[in-house]
Amino acid sequence: MYLQPLPPIASWTHTGLRTGFEVLFSAGTALHGHTSAREGGSAWYVGYQVDVDSGWRTQSVHAVNRTAAGEHTVALARTPDAHWIVDGLHRPDLGGCEDVDFESSAVTNTLPIHRISFTAGTPVEVPAAFVQANDLSVVRIEQRYTLVSSEPGRYVFQYESTSFDFECRLTFDGAGLVLDYPGIAVRDR
């Protein structure tokens, strides 16, 4: 699977579960994004920076959010021996996670797509450090990606999260960014 470099700017309209918008600015190995949304009776925004190494493994994450309850921040880092530190505290429950995944974002699904050499039809377990939108708390999420089809400029994966009993087909562009995340977001730029 050959992926093109990320575009400098991309955006999504969030639909279904929430009404909102996400924008991404990418520069080398840094992803800077911002999501604003209304979900149920609440509204929030999440701003994030995700730094990855040359193999697309998450190295550090900084995020800030605002809800009616106030502002929260979180900082995550992966140590050289692949342990996670969240706000200065070692988190052994995140062992084996190489990616961060933001509840508020369609962007972070690109991390395993860039990092893993997928073979069509072969499921790959991809646990992640999952950052929740409302308070930026971090929990472990169990996920599985299976490459369903691949053609130039378009990749389709079966996505499953046993943590949330959720599955869908994710469509990605040639740069590995989500084009369609059913019930969550649609790429508009």
Question: What does this entry look like structurally?
Answer:
InterPro entries: Glycolipid-bd_prot_put. This protein is mainly beta and 189 residues long. The protein has one domain. Helices cover 3% and strands 56% of the residues. It is built from 1 helix and 17 strands. The protein has one helix spanning 110-115; strands spanning 9-14, 19-27, 30-39, 42-52, 58-67, 70-78, 84-86, 89-90, 99-102, 124-125, 128-131, 138-141, 143-151, 154-161, 166-173, 178-181, 185-187. The strands form 2 sheets. The chain has a 14-stranded antiparallel sheet with strand order 8-7-6-5-4-3-2-1-17-16-15-14-13-10, with no helix packed on it. It is globular. The model has no long low-confidence stretch (mean pLDDT 95).
Number of strands: 17
Distance between the termini: 23 Å
Radius of gyration: 15 Å
- The overall number of domains is 1
Number of helices: 1
Protein name: Glycolipid-binding domain-containing protein
InterPro entries: Glycolipid-bd_prot_put
Offer a quick outline of the entry:
With 189 residues, the protein is mainly β. The chain has one helix and 17 strands. The chain has one domain.
List keywords for this structure.
189 residues; 1 helix
Protein topology:
Layout: E1 9-14, E2 19-27, E3 30-39, E4 42-52, E5 58-67, E6 70-78, E7 84-86, E8 89-90, E9 99-102, H1 110-115, E10 124-125, E11 128-131, E12 138-141, E13 143-151, E14 154-161, E15 166-173, E16 178-181, E17 185-187
Parallel strand pairs: 9-11
Antiparallel strand pairs: 1-2, 1-17, 2-3, 3-4, 4-5, 5-6, 6-7, 7-8, 10-13, 11-12, 13-14, 14-15, 15-16, 16-17
InterPro entries: Glycolipid-bd_prot_put
Protein name: Glycolipid-binding domain-containing protein
